[in-house]
Structure formats: structure tokens, C-alpha cells
């Protein structure tokens, strides 16, 4: 267990998930006050709380919710228990479910700059979490959860072998690989209106891209002074699509290095793209976001073409041929209203140098 203020902290700064300071259901916006200010290049460790087990349709009582699955009260996180027991209002009809830690101000960030969030480490704060299908949502909204239920939650655990364990209900368990990541990373959008935590956008937010593991880097276009970075929606694992509405939602202690890019090249690329983009050791990942899944695919392909042109000078027709032959366009999630598609381009394919024009012009 990684209780607030206990255990290893890998970053230069530590930001707990203070129940009085976290955002619940709404993301930070242009008028939000930062809870921490750091410089570009510094690292910050954030505690994150999973919303599963503290929501109103689960009784807003994590002791009872997880206790029914055999999780003792001594294994509950103090910050999650305190948030559930607090007088803070959470109206599920007007807000999302997510608990978000932040925002963190990055000194000197200006609109048009690019904020790089490099995920350095993701430590499990507890050995359990939950997977839920609720309110007739998810990929099969007319079929699950089965009537008369309005929410169906399954408590999953981490086995001694470090794999996820999902009870079948007859004494068996399904076992699966864990791949922890943050479903939400983002910057404040340039609005003073409430920002619902569910739909992702150019600000990032609830992207739910399972490839944003430790070692990945997410590039976010800054929209307000000081960027106001935040993170939340921790996952122990998720499949592409996240078809049941949630995946293995469970709390993480995340350490990130936040770096500001304010040069003309970074700003120019960000201005050409409709969404954030990411990199892993081996891939560049572009995103497409839209309520229409077909349109989300189109946006992802267009951003991939823009990136290929901007970074590598590859003309559109050639770029489209390459994407069709070698890139993977996969569904990130279909359950957040704004659906997500991510396109994965292998870096090894893009290392060829530009051809030089001979001195005689031929």
C-alpha cells in the first residue's frame, strides 16, 4: 500500500491527492488555481485516486464496496476514504466520475508552446481495483448491464504472479497482463466554463490510450499561461476499445518529467495537429478524436500526414501509401462520447535522411 505521504517518492516534488484540492468530475480550466508550481525539466510525483468504489451508484462507501469483495478496511487508501466521506458534492448527471490531481503550473509556459509529459514511473498504490459497466453505457448500451441492474462492478486484484485476477463467479479467475498507465493527462483548456472530465480533446484529458506507459512521452499544446497540467484516471490495464465503459481502474503513484518546448518548430507542429501526440521508445503515436468513429479515424490519418510532412518532408500521397502499408490505426476507446483512435508509426521506418539536391540542380 502507498498511503498519502508514505513510501517511495521518485520526483523532485510530491503532490498528494488531497481530498480538498483534487478535481472531481471536472477538469481544471483557465480560472483554476495551481496547487504546485514547478520549472520546466523538473519531475513531480502525483498520487492518483481511482473513482471506482467511491461513486454514488456504488454507495459512496469504499469500505462496504470493497469489503463485499473481501478487501479489508486496513487495505483502503486514506485519501480515497476521506474523499468519499467528505461533504464535497458530486453530481453524476452533470460531471464525470474522474478524480484529477493538480493542476501543476509550469513556470513560463505560454499558449502555443508544447508541454511534454514524460512518464518516468507508475507505482501501484493498492493491489486491487474495479471494472464497471454502468447506466447502459459502454459498447453495448442496450445489452449490458443486464436488467434490472444499472451498474455492474467486478473487483479485480493483483495476484502473487503480478498479473491481474478477474473472478468469474464460480471459483475460477481470468488472468491477464498488467500494463499501468494514466487515462487522464492534460492541460487546462482556454475556457472559464466547466470542463466535463469524460470527453477528451485538444487539451488532452481522458485520452485512455493504453500505450502511454512508463517511458512514454505525451505532447500537449499549451492553451493557458503556465499550462496547468493535471493527471488522473489511473489504470492497471486496459484493452484497446475499453468496451465495458471502464477498464481495470486502480490507484497509481505517478512520476513525470514535465518539459516545456517553446521553439518555433515545436509550436509550428502543434499548430498543424488537431490533437496531442505521443512517443514511445519505438513509435510515434497520433490521435484522432470525434464523436463519430469514422471521423476520428480521418483526423488521426490527417495528423499522421501532417507529422510526416513536417518532420520528414514526406508528401501527402506518399505518406498515405506508407500509412496504409505499415502503420496501425487502433481504437483507443469507444465509451467517452468523443471516441478515440490512435495511429502508431514505427520510428525505425522514418530514419532515412532527406535526399540532398545536387549542386548542379539535377
TrEMBL record:
Gene3D superfamilies: Acetamidase/Formamidase-like domains. It comes from the Bacteria. PANTHER family: FORMAMIDASE C869.04-RELATED. Pfam families: FmdA_AmdA (PF03069). It comes from Streptomyces hainanensis. GO terms for molecular function: hydrolase activity, acting on carbon-nitrogen (but not peptide) bonds, in linear amides. This is Acetamidase.
Amino acid at each position: 500500500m502507498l498511503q498519502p505521504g508514505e513510501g517511495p517518492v521518485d520526483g523532485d516534488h510530491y503532490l498528494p491527492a488531497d481530498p480538498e484540492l483534487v478535481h472531481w468530475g471536472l477538469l481544471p480550466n483557465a480560472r483554476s488555481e495551481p496547487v504546485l508550481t514547478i520549472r520546466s525539466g523538473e519531475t513531480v510525483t502525483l498520487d492518483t485516486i481511482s473513482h471506482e468504489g467511491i461513486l454514488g451508484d456504488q454507495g459512496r462507501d469504499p469500505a462496504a464496496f470493497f469489503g463485499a469483495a473481501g478487501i479489508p478496511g486496513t487495505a483502503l487508501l486514506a485519501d480515497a476514504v476521506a474523499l468519499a466521506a467528505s461533504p464535497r458534492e458530486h453530481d453524476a448527471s452533470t460531471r464525470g466520475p474522474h478524480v484529477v490531481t493538480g493542476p501543476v503550473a509550469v513556470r513560463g509556459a505560454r499558449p502555443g508552446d508544447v508541454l511534454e509529459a514524460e512518464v518516468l514511473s507508475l507505482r501501484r498504490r493498492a493491489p486491487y481495483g474495479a471494472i464497471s459497466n454502468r447506466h447502459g453505457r459502454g459498447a453495448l448500451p442496450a445489452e449490458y448491464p443486464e436488467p434490472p441492474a444499472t451498474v455492474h462492478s467486478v473487483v479485480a486484484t493483483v495476484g502473487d504472479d503480478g498479473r491481474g485476477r478477474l473472478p468469474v463467479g464460480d471459483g475460477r479467475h481470468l488472468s491477464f497482463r498488467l500494463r499501468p498507465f494514466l487515462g487522464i493527462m492534460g492541460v487546462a483548456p482556454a475556457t472559464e466554463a466547466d470542463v466535463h472530465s469524460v470527453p477528451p480533446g485538444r487539451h488532452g484529458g481522458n485520452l485512455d490510450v493504453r500505450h502511454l506507459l512508463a517511458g512514454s512521452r505525451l505532447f500537449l499544446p499549451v492553451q493557458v499561461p503556465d499550462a496547468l497540467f493535471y493527471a488522473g484516471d489511473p489504470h492497471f490495464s486496459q484493452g484497446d476499445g475499453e468496451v465495458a465503459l471502464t477498464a481495470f481502474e486502480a490507484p497509481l503513484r505517478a512520476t513525470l518529467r514535465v518539459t516545456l518546448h517553446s521553439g518555433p518548430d515545436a509550436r509550428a507542429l502543434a499548430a498543424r495537429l488537431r490533437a496531442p501526440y505521443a512517443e514511445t521508445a519505438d513509435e510515434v503515436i497520433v490521435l484522432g478524436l470525434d464523436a463519430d468513429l469514422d471521423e476520428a479515424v480521418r483526423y488521426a490519418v490527417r495528423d499522421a500526414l501532417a507529422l510526416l510532412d513536417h518532420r520528414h518532408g514526406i508528401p501527402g500521397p506518399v505518406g498515405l501509401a506508407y500509412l496504409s502499408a505499415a502503420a496501425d490505426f487502433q481504437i483507443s476507446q469507444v465509451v467517452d462520447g468523443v471516441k478515440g483512435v490512435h495511429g502508431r508509426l514505427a520510428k525505425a521506418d522514418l530514419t532515412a535522411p532527406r535526399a540532398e539536391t545536387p549542386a548542379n540542380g539535377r
